[in-house]
Amino acid sequence: MELNQAEVSPISASTQSLELPVATPTNKKPKGLVFGVVFCAILAIAGVVFGIYELVDSNQKSQQISELKAQTENQEEVVNSSDATVGIMDLTQNDVNVRAVVDEMQKVAADTSGVGDIKVYDRFFPLVKSQNAKTLLRLEKSYGLYAFSELDNIDESSAITEAIVKKLKELGFVDNDDIFGPAYVVGGSNLINSDSGIICNISGGLPFTAECGHISWVSDESIALANKLSDAYNSVEGSYPFSINLRGYTIKDSSVSPYQTLRVAISNAMGLFYRTSPDTDWQYFTATQAVLNCDDFNAQDLKNAFAGETCYDGSQNSTVQP
């Protein structure tokens, strides 16, 4: 802050008028007193200027401290956020943790077979048995490795698998066969780190695949829908499906309103579901890996729900007729 020059000049003028004629002894003041007054005046002005400077500087520092404190409090608020928002931050940290594990697997693969960077994102998805879920579910995102042309034979793939499994166990992972079943991946391995919540599936074949993710990467909405579909499946097949993959599932309005259909991957096939209206429960029809025969749509609800869809009439492709 700059001082107004008009405020300083009166003091300067008074110091010049202190030299009075000697012939007027009655008005003469002691020099010591005069010098003392001038000195005090100068100190007072210096004090005012310094005080103003300190005030401005203090305000600036105070503002900087307040801003820094606010930033720190915001960071703490994110880290120590309420249950309603911690999931968002949690996913971010889990991304970092899973990527770190995949980086370790990449190093092992490179050291074992000399492959380059084979890291992939959202290509293969580990299975997880989420709490309250009635079947295994595919995670909704993942990080991992993929190699096909980079490997010469299955022996290289097996060697990479063995080396990665060894490394993961050094990092605190344990076999997860008691959840997935030992036959889930022939020649491969399923591992979990209970402390970090990270799961990894290693293929052990060609192409070589290794996918990792966090057990929380299945939403509550997905679990709720999967349970409804599992119940519908169980009512027809007499058992729950081994797994459901809700990634990319579609709900389609039928040409016969208000029927709807839903397609979703069940184990290694495409599961077909339908409902008579959006406010009714899903019904399981079948799971298939090929075009169905037209005769398979042998109930009116099935004909209405899948009306216009491709079917095979025994000699050529046709469409389901309502």
Layout: helices, strands, pairs:
Blueprint: H1 5-16, H2 31-79, H3 83-113, E1 119-121, E2 127-128, E3 136-138, E4 143-147, H4 154-170, E5 174-175, H5 177-180, E6 189-193, E7 198-202, E8 208-214, H6 220-237, E9 243-253, E10 260-266, E11 269-275, E12 283-288, H7 300-305, E13 310-312, E14 317-319
Parallel strand pairs: 3-9
Antiparallel strand pairs: 1-4, 2-3, 4-8, 5-6, 6-7, 7-8, 9-10, 10-11, 11-12, 13-14
Helix pairs in contact: 3-4
What is the string of helix and strand elements?
HHHEEEEHEHEEEHEEEEHEE
Question: How many DSSP E strands?
Answer: 14
* Structural class category: alpha+beta
Query: What is the typical, i.e. mean, pLDDT?
Result: 76
Tally of structural domains? 3
Low-confidence stretches: 1-89, 181-186
User: The biggest beta sheet, please?
Assistant: 6 strands, antiparallel
- Spatially, the strands of the biggest sheet line up as 1-4-8-7-6-5
By DSSP (H or I, 4+ residues per run), the number of helices equals 7
The dominant shape is: elongated
